[in-house]
Amino acid sequence: MMNDKAIVTAIFPSPVYRSTLTRKFTNKESKFISESKLDVNKNEGNTTSKNNYILNAKPFNNLKKELDNIIQDYFDKVVSTSNNIKPYITQSWLNYTETDQYHHKHAHQNSIVSGVVYINADKKNDRIKFFKETYSTIKLEIKDYNLWNSDSWFFEVETGDIILFPSSLIHMVYPKQGTNTRISLSFNTFVKGTLGVKRDLTELIL
Fold first, then answer.
1. In the chain, at which residue ranges do the beta strands (DSSP E only) sit?
2. Are strands 204-205 and 127-131 parallel, antiparallel or unpaired?
3. Exposed, middle or buried: residue 68 (CB in 10 Å: 0-12, 13-18, 19+)?
């Protein structure tokens, strides 16, 4: 018997912020992305640009400004702190994933919020998957998966999509399907300013 008055509320959720670029990548940006593919490191499952401060490159000047605004919006909407802090991008790098390649299961250390910009992605075949890493006392067979009973959740992605999430959130990419080269730009963030409260002995000035 269904209870029509029942309310299920999500508390302490993991925020996954999704947005899209309001423009296409410029010829200058696209050329730089192609050239960067010639200078890569082998990752576990795919390749990444050797330049891991890629957003500091001149061709990405405008993209970096757009991402700075999006990161600030995440902090305004999700973190919503009264502390005088300013988020900023630390490291950033390009990922190239060919057919049958993958991106291993991982999280991002020394970062508060991490993000991905999808430069070339096919919604039919490309997705990012997140995992809940907390221990469950019992394990039941699930009839209908939802946000409360799932151990993992994925989002389909396409060119221009942007996803931000807590850096501690475990994520991965399964072996690439389709013939397109999946290209994404990942980045980490930290903050400058004063954290915590002086009288509570939690103040940290960065």
1. 17-20, 40-42, 47-49, 85-97, 103-106, 113-120, 127-131, 152-156, 161-166, 170-173, 182-195, 204-205
2. unpaired
3. middle
Helix (H, G, I), strand (E, B) or coil at 97: strand
> From CA 18, how far away is CA 115, in angstroms rounded?
10
Query: pLDDT tens, 163-200?
Result: 999 999 999 999 999 889 999 999 999 999 999 999 99
Distance CA 37, CA 93 (A): 11
What does DSSP say about strands 161-166 and 152-156: parallel, antiparallel, or unpaired? unpaired
**CATH fold group of domain 17-205:** Jelly Rolls (2.60.120)
Query: What residue ranges do the domains of the chain occupy?
Result: 17-205
In the structure encoding, which two tokens stand for residue 95, read together? 């990922």
